[in-house]
Design brief:
The protein is of the alpha+beta class. It contains four helices and six strands; from the N terminus they run αββαββββαα.
Length: 161
């Protein structure tokens, strides 16, 4: 298999998995190895296997956010590695980080890096921007101290001495 063919096969695995997530599929073993690892940023946790991923990520996400639409903006594939960035558009329908359902439509930004082996995902490094989601729900986790204030000229960034 050429490098281009391998990259396209990897891309197909990821697109198939993403479609299954969007359809609320419960057959994640078709897409992930049983002992695959899901490694998220702070606030998202780490899932050491498929069962943990399902019970401690997939199902809680479904409970908190319904009417989900995955909008991947860009895929990059090289051999058995793939990455992407995009967002989920969803309705806040259940408790999320202590915030009761608001019914608001939110955007959940994400970045993923996957390692594919034998046609299924072995490892997944993830960054989900929960701070952005919380801001959309009215909670500023940075308590006004986010560096966006520098961008808007509301604060002057400190400089090294």
């Amino acid at each position: 298999m050429t490098a281009e063919e391998k990259a396209e096969a990897t891309r197909h695995v990821i697109l198939r998995m993403e479609a299954a997530l969007g359809e609320n599929s419960d057959d994640m073993a078709a897409h992930f190895h049983e002992d695959f690892r899901w490694m998220g940023n702070r606030g998202c946790g780490t899932k050491p296997d498929l069962r943990s991923f399902r019970e401690n990520w997939q199902l809680p996400l479904r409970a908190a956010f319904t009417e989900r639409h995955y909008k991947t903006e860009r895929f990059i594939c090289e051999g058995d590695w793939a990455s992407c960035f995009g967002h989920i558009e969803a309705t806040h329908s259940g408790e999320f980080m202590g915030i009761s359902a608001t019914g608001k439509r939110v955007t959940i930004p994400y970045m993923d890096f996957w390692k594919v082996e034998d046609g299924r995902i072995r490892d997944n490094w993830v960054s989900v921007d929960f701070a952005a989601v919380l801001a959309q729900l009215g909670r500023d986790v940075f308590a006004g101290e986010g560096w966006e204030a520098y961008d808007r000229g509301e604060r002057t960034p400190p400089r090294p001495q």
